[in-house]
Amino acid sequence: MAIADEAVGRMDWKRARVSPKRQVTIPQKLFEQAGIKDEVEFGIKGNHIIMRPVREHVGNDYFADLILADLIKEGFTGEQLLEKFRQKQGELHVAIKKLIAESDKTARSFKGTGDDETEDIFGDVMGD
């Protein structure tokens, strides 16, 4: 395949032509498997274009459930609940971005193999 499997993982590939207007028809099987409705979003990683269905809800549904449960316990209802929920989801997004940035910084400054640290943390559950 023209795209390196190690870059995007093993998968079935379909070939499509690109029109002079840069348009591509998505093969029906892929369209259905991806759950595409009427919109997609694009990203780029290296020289790979990634396309995915637009998600109506931002964030992880599990976290959304936790946020809603907490807000309901705090007594929020109606419009107040909706407003507070949107605020908390925004805060979660910022916190996740910060966590990713901190993890990236830590990983880039790490020296060594990490074997000693892994053994210290997981040694009791690692097999021989």
Automatic annotation (TrEMBL):
Domain SpoVT-AbrB: 13-56
InterPro entries linked to this entry: SpoVT-AbrB_dom (IPR007159), SpoVT-AbrB_sf (IPR037914)
SMART domains: SpoVT_AbrB
GO molecular function (one): DNA binding
Record keywords, A-Z: DNA-binding
SUPFAM superfamilies: AbrB/MazE/MraZ-like
Name of protein: AbrB/MazE/SpoVT family DNA-binding domain-containing protein
Species the sequence originates in: Paenibacillus oceani
